[in-house]
């Protein structure tokens, strides 16, 4: 095992997750859902006005929702996706570690956890989900 | 070897190698002298379709080094996720007009656009952070400095980033264009 594990290393026992790992997984998940919705919206060809009418919202609300996933709930995600093209999300689990991409040509620096993990931090976060 | 293991290299995209050979050599030199680091996706499953180089200042922030305030550690994680999305070829919202951009833009140009200084806008988790940098070429972002959004004086931050750029790239100009895809390849939405 590497002396400096990835911040996305699988949790072990009751060791507290690092604040960085929590920040990463929350943001990454939000961004991934946002990407899915924006991709569907781009492919659908509908306008924000149409989407707003389908959802009974004002166009500026739709503009704000599509702009960033910061205030999304799971319900927001589900209704946006369905309203765009009638689709549902397929959710699956995967490990972010050891899953090599097919075109990994560069060996660079990847932020890791320090040996003395800052596991006692109690940083407060705005948790949306 | 650095404590973080194998650390630097350059992008092996065919387009970059063929079109920007001298830039590649320069970036390689900056990495060899440890003035820049090529960021590798935290999520090992991400493809590397765009790349990010970071200075030691940004590296320390991203790794939550000693001295980084505790309230910014989740933000550093959020920044890594944003960089992963960018590097993985995800859709980027890019604010072209520094004064009229969507408040949710993921990246944006700063005033004056002619300086070529852009920032990555880490909006979540809070407190917000801005990571300033510039593009030496399309899809290559060099992240140079970072600031908390609160109390941020943009003119000063842009000036500091410009100084860093000169220090790293001397007379080489960053990308300055009115075409968003000169900065970031599709999928990118100018907002």
Jot down its keywords:
heterodimer, A: 129 residues, mainly alpha, 434 Repressor (Amino-terminal Domain), 0% strand, disordered C terminus, B: 191 residues, alpha/beta, 8-stranded mixed beta sheet, 29% helix, globular, disordered N terminus
Question: Could you describe the 3D structure shown?
Answer:
The complex is a heterodimer of chains A (about 130) and B (about 190). Chain A is mainly alpha-helical and about 130 residues long. Chain A has a domain at about 20-85: 434 Repressor (Amino-terminal Domain) (Orthogonal Bundle). Chain A has 4 helices and no strands. The radius of gyration of chain A is 19 Å and the shape is elongated. Chain A starts with 18 loop residues before the first helix and ends in a 44-residue tail after the last helix. By secondary structure, chain B is an alpha/beta fold. Chain B has helices at about 15-20, 20-30, 55-60, 75-85, 155-170, and strands at about 35-40, 50-55, 90-95, 105-110, 115-120, 130-135, 140-150, 190. Chain B has an 8-stranded mixed beta sheet with strand order 1-2-7-6-5-4-3-8, with helices on both faces. Classes of the chains: A mainly alpha (about 130), B alpha/beta (about 190). The interface between A and B is large, with 56 and 59 residues.
């Amino acid at each position: 095992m590497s002396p400096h594990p990835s911040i996305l290393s699988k949790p072990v026992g009751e060791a507290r997750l690092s604040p960085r790992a929590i920040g990463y997984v929350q943001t990454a998940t939000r961004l991934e859902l946002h990407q899915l919705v924006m991709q569907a919206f781009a492919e659908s060809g509908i306008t924000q006005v149409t989407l707003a009418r389908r959802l009974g919202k004002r166009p500026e609300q739709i503009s704000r929702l599509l702009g960033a996933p910061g205030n999304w709930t799971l319900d927001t995600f589900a209704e946006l996706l369905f309203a765009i093209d009638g689709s549902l999300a397929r959710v699956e689990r995967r490990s972010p570690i050891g899953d090599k991409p097919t075109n990994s040509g560069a060996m660079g620096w990847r932020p890791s956890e320090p040996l003395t993990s800052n596991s006692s931090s109690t940083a407060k976060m705005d948790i949306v989900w | 070897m650095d404590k973080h293991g194998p650390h630097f290299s350059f992008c092996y995209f065919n387009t970059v190698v063929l079109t920007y050979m001298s830039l590649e050599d320069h970036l390689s030199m900056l990495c060899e002298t440890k003035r820049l680091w090529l960021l590798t996706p935290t999520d090992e499953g991400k493809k590397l379709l765009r790349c990010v180089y970071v200075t030691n200042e940004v590296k320390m922030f991203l790794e939550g080094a000693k001295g980084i305030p505790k309230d910014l550690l989740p933000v550093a994680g959020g920044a890594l996720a944003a960089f992963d999305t960018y590097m993985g070829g995800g859709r980027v919202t890019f604010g072209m007009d520094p004064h009229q951009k969507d408040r949710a833009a993921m990246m944006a140009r700063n005033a004056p656009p002619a300086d070529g200084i852009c920032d990555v806008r880490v909006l979540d988790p809070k407190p917000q952070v801005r990571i300033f940098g510039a593009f030496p070429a399309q899809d290559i972002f060099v992240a140079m400095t970072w600031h908390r959004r609160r109390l941020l004086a943009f003119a000063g931050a842009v000036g500091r980033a410009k100084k860093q750029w000169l220090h790293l790239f001397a007379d080489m100009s960053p990308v300055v264009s009115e075409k968003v895809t000169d900065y970031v390849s599709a999928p990118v939405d100018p907002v």
